[in-house]
Structure of Glycosyl transferase family A:
Amino acid sequence: MDSVSVVIAAMNARDTIGRAVRSALAEAEVAEVVVVDDGSRDDTAATARAADDGSGRLAVLELGKNRGPSAARNHAIAHSQAPLIAILDADDFLLPGRFKPMLAEDDWDFVADNILFVDAAWPALDSIEAPRFAPEPRFLDLAGFIEGNISRRGKERGEIGFLKPVMRRRFLAEHGLSYREEMRLGEDYDLYARALICGARYKILHSVGYGAVVRANSLSGRHRTVDLHCLADADAAMLADPQLTGRARRLVAEHEAHVRGRFELRRFLDQKSERGLAQAGLAALARPAALPAVVLGIARDKFDALQRRGAGSGPAAPLPPRTLMPGRAA
């Protein structure tokens, strides 16, 4: 059985990095844990080192300035050696026994398991118990992956793009695949989509092995305008690939249009903030294709604000843990 490199990109993660490192080192299949401190302003690196179990499997690297999650992950992967690569976010954790069902067979290039979403306010995160689901393996094709990443209004957080697969280093090397370092949003989606275009066998298990901590102020929830532009451009690059055909191509085009619309709305709001409503409106009128996204986006934002106001402003109780995919009891 091949061993695993667990890669963790971390920035200002002092409060959570220790739990992430300890959860990875607890897994027998893990040959190394590589943490990259991506220009933190706190003692993330020292806290990560303090979680070492003395096995010699932990390496903590530090970048002098923040370069973003894609660059940090590429740096960690370049400084790791195990045949398999697993990405772990700095505020998440691995559940005990995660890798055993994932590595039971080797008929895949990427293999992902179910995710347990846990509210950051939920008590005793370190000892939480996940439901025991039967693996029920299946393969995910490119069209299914792209469709699972298209946001649908009213659909709760937890799309296919949140899966954290284990990746074969050999496949990445053979196809020259790495994270696009200009991307700080959707970098996982882009890498996995490009791998599927290259013919990756992407296997999914329903057994639960990854704990994702959900918090209202997460970095992934605060998208910069330029980040949306980069994500839309990544879709455009895929659409330029002649290997992308059929239903998958139509779905990538739909994803690109959705992201491009979000970008146009954010650009309008930026211009409104910087130059006033009249100037922002004139700029939007100069881009007729962007007008529907701007008008609909503003209307939806107003509607959502009214709903939040009607729901009251008191502190909400933590939501109970839930899994990304349903499962059958093992």
Notes: Strands lie at 4-10, 30-38, 58-63, 84-87, 93-94, 110-119, 138-140, 166-168, 202-214, 322-323.
